[in-house]
Write a structure and sequence with these properties.
Blueprint (H helix, E strand, L loop, with lengths): L14 H11 L3 H15 L15 E7 L5 H4 L4 H5 L30 E4 L4 E4 L3 H5 L4 E8 L5 H10 L9 H9 L9 E4 L20 E3 L21 H22 L3 H24 L6 H7 L7 H16 L3 E6 L8 H25 L6 E6 L3 E7 L11 E5 L3 E6 L7 E3 L1 E2 L6 E3 L2 E2 H11 L9 E3 L2 E3 L15
Helix pairs in contact: 1-2, 8-9, 11-12
Protein name: Sulfatase
Pfam family, one: DUF1501
InterPro entries: Alkaline_phosphatase_core_sf, DUF1501, TAT_signal
Length: 478
């Protein structure tokens, strides 16, 4: 195995010293080729790289439902919750492992009917009518699990694999392992990113692999979706001369001090930003899309415009060669009045997400694009009366990291398939448990990357997205 696939697990220590020592001490053609690729990667961190094995997916779109959608209201019908709705949990056989104090809460049935859909029979709520129409393209994981019940920490673990350290986001790992298919665009883009930069950062990986943030997607194509990207008061030739001057000074400093990831990141970002000035404006100009496509995503409709634009832009970015696009769709933290709030959350996300899957499929992109839909955790089968006095119809649900639902589509996963089950209460996983490390390992596997070999040496040890854990979920691979 030769070439750039070695880049994914040869540590990036001081490259200059490493290359010189290795070149002097070894003479094999294969090793020389490997070292040449390492040197190339140091100069062009976003250059396309070979995979460890044949990939099923070329790119990933991660649709992050921030706040924790309720699987009990959207995907997992439990007759017991319907039967015991409104009864104290302690009076209906407390589920094994439930936290102390759970017995005083009330069982909550689903907010709307959850029905079998399509030929696969996948169960989806009537609150998600558009997703119901693409049920046979979806692959459900009903036994998902993370390790922390707090929003920030669970979000951090879902994105980086850990909740107690600063580690690279999975988009940064994908960019590091594969590079970008378009030299004028970053390898990782985060749309409507959360305020916590750790969720899309590159940590100790080269800074070129951190997520490029797109906040609000402008309706006016003359406006930039990326802050500080354009300089309308300076000609392109003048900008180029300025950049060349600054870059020369930066490289001279880097030559003197050796490796400096911050300086390397600055050099790379200057060059990428200059190239992006040409590619990005046309890419984020959604007015070039057909009226039918805009309507499909719900662009122009109040409830769906924001998320519709984000999902449509995600498709355009992937089509243009970006490896990993994350779209954050918030509003799922329903501690109170879930009956009143959940329909609005579904209304804003249902049509754009389903449209993305339909659009990718009709353009021939779904087969090699992996779509991942998930929150940081799910919600409990019992209520949470945050005031202590609210009537039952105003109750919400607490966080549940022990089991929740994620779904995938395209990119080599089985269509119309459901993996994993929970107990009759919908609390503990009884089969098909998938820890977040397992999901990360599977995403990398579908991209053609071995999660145990995609490593980076930092602080004296080799790090990877899955740390020392993770098993590929073979059952869901087509």
């Amino acid at each position: 195995m030769r070439g750039s696939q070695q880049l994914s697990y040869v540590p990036a220590v001081n490259r200059r010293d490493f290359l010189q020592r290795a070149a002097c001490g070894f003479g094999s053609i294969a090793l020389q080729a490997m070292l040449a690729d390492i040197a190339t990667a140091a100069k062009a961190p976003l250059a396309p790289r070979a995979t460890h094995f044949a990939a099923r997916a070329k790119r990933v779109i991660f649709l992050f439902m921030a706040g924790g959608p309720s699987q009990h209201d959207l995907f997992v019908p439990k007759p017991r919750l319907v039967r015991d709705h409104g009864r104290r949990v302690g009076l209906t056989d407390l589920p094994s492992g439930a936290p102390v104090g759970t017995d005083k809460f009330l069982t909550l049935g689903p907010m709307a009917p959850i029905l079998p859909r399509g030929e696969s029979g996948a169960t989806i709520s009537t609150l998600l009518p558009h997703l119901a129409k693409v049920a046979d393209d979806l692959c459900f994981l009903h036994g998902m699990q993370v390790d922390n019940p707090a929003h920030d920490l669970a979000t951090l673990q879902f994105n980086t694999g850990v909740f107690n350290e600063v580690r690279p986001a999975m988009g940064a790992w994908a960019s590091y392992g594969l590079g970008s298919e378009n030299e004028n665009l970053p390898g990782f883009v985060s749309i409507h990113a959360d305020a916590d930069v750790r969720a899309y950062g590159s940590a100790f990986l080269p800074a070129a692999h951190q997520g490029t943030v797109i906040g609000q997607i402008p309706t006016d194509p003359r406006e930039s979706a990326i802050r500080f990207l354009s300089d309308p008061e300076t000609t392109k030739d003048a900008q180029r001369r300025r950049i060349d001057f600054v870059q020369a000074a930066n490289r001279e400093l880097l030559d003197r001090i050796g490796e400096d990831r911050v300086m390397e990141g600055v050099i790379d970002s200057f060059e990428l930003a200059f190239r992006m000035q040409t590619a990005t404006p046309q890419l984020v100009d959604l007015s070039t899309e057909a009226a039918e496509t805009l309507a499909l995503y719900g662009v122009g409709t109040d409830a769906t415009d924001k998320n519709g634009r984000a999902c449509l832009l995600a498709r355009r970015l992937c089509e243009a060669g970006v490896r990993f696009v994350q779209v954050t769709i918030g509003g799922w933290d329903h501690h109170g009045d879930i009956r009143g709030a959940l329909p609005n959350s579904c209304l804003g996300a249902d049509q754009p997400v389903a449209a993305l899957i339909i659009d990718l499929k009709r353009r021939g992109l779904l087969d090699d694009t992996l779509v991942v839909w998930s929150g940081e955790f799910g919600r409990t089968p019992w209520s949470q009366d945050i005031t202590g006095t609210a009537p039952l119809e105003k109750h919400g649900r607490e966080h549940q990291p022990e089991s929740f639902t994620t779904f995938l589509a395209g990119g080599g996963v089985r269509r119309g398939f459901s993996h994993g089950e929970t107990d009759e209460f919908g609390y503990k996983t009884t089969s098909g448990r998938v820890h977040i490390h397992d999901l990360h390992a599977t995403i990398l596997h579908l991209l053609g990357l071995d999660h145990e070999r995609l490593t980076y040496r930092h602080a004296g040890r080799d790090y990877r997205l899955t740390d020392v854990y993770g098993t590929v979920i073979r059952q869901i691979i087509a």
